[in-house]
């Protein structure tokens, strides 16, 4: 069966520090991968998605970047965090063709 | 810009009440409409993936309907229970890309 792992669960980082959140999927090949964020009081906003190794689409201009170095690995990064980067980050995967998404357990990021 | 609207934003009901929420989405380029249930500190859990106009899906006491021509979907919960308390998200999957656009969610609180 397919599983998705996301870590860390919580993170408190100072402004200006770097960020790396990792997400890995098991039990499937060539998944579509996604990073979403929920800022305080808001819905889920799509940040990045990837349909294959090295293929990243960015949805909104921001202080973050994403990479997909392996088929089932998706990394969210920042060189210098801003206060506005605080939020709840969710990684998700889906098979191609519009089926349901499976979400990771999420990372609560607080930038102080 | 694609917009997915959910109403109401929040709902407080008593145990045993039946309730329903609305999701509005663009009626053009429709591919699928998803409903998710999101409990605090957990991952969103897929409830339904709906693709055909007039679709009706049911899972226990929860059901959903879909109207793709007018761009709306209803989620119904019959005889709400405290364990139904969660945020219910709808998401629009359109055929120009492999990505879901989420609404803001409806936060349901069921009091015993």
Structure commentary:
- The complex is a heterodimer of chains A (about 110) and B (about 110).
- In chain A, about 0% of the residues lie in helices and about 55% in strands.
- Chain A has strands spanning about 5, 10-15, 20-25, 30-40, 45-50, 55-60, 65-70, 75-80, 85-95, 100-105, 105-110.
- Chain A is globular.
- Chain B has strands at about 5, 10-15, 20-25, 30-40, 45-50, 55-60, 60-65, 70-75, 85-95, 100, 105-110.
- The model of chain B has no long low-confidence stretch (mean pLDDT about 90).
- Chain B is built from no helices and eleven strands.
- The chains are: A mainly beta (about 110), B mainly beta (about 110).
- The interface between A and B is medium-sized, with 24 and 23 residues.
Can you give the mean pLDDT of chain A? Answer: 91
Question: What characteristic shape of chain B results from the CA principal axes?
Answer: globular
Secondary structure tally, helices of chain A = 0
What percentage of amino acids of chain B are in beta strands?
over 45%
- The rounded Rg of chain B comes to 14 Å
State the helical fraction of chain B: under 10%
Report the biggest beta sheet of chain B as strand number plus sense, adding barrel if it closes.
6 strands, mixed
Tell me the number of strands of chain B. 11
Low-confidence stretches of chain A: none
